[in-house]
Design goal:
Strand content: under 5%
Radius of gyration: 15 Å
Largest sheet: none
Order of helices and strands: HH
Shape: flat
Number of helices: 2
Number of strands: 0
Length: 57
């Protein structure tokens, strides 16, 4: 992942945190917190590798 991509995800995480702190609706607060965690995760580890699964036979 490029440095620019990581910077973008960190900025979006900060924005989501601000939105969560200013929101009054509990559902909106939770949604912003979930998004914030996702952006932080993406910035710190990048995309997760998709593991191939064996079909259960």
């Amino acid at each position: 992942m490029s440095t620019q991509d990581r910077i973008y995800f960190v900025r979006r995480a900060a924005e989501e945190m601000e939105l969560a702190e200013s929101a009054t609706d509990p559902t909106a607060i939770e949604a912003h917190r979930v998004l914030q965690r996702k952006y932080v995760e993406r910035a710190s580890i990048g995309e997760r590798a998709h593991e191939a699964r064996d079909p259960i036979g």
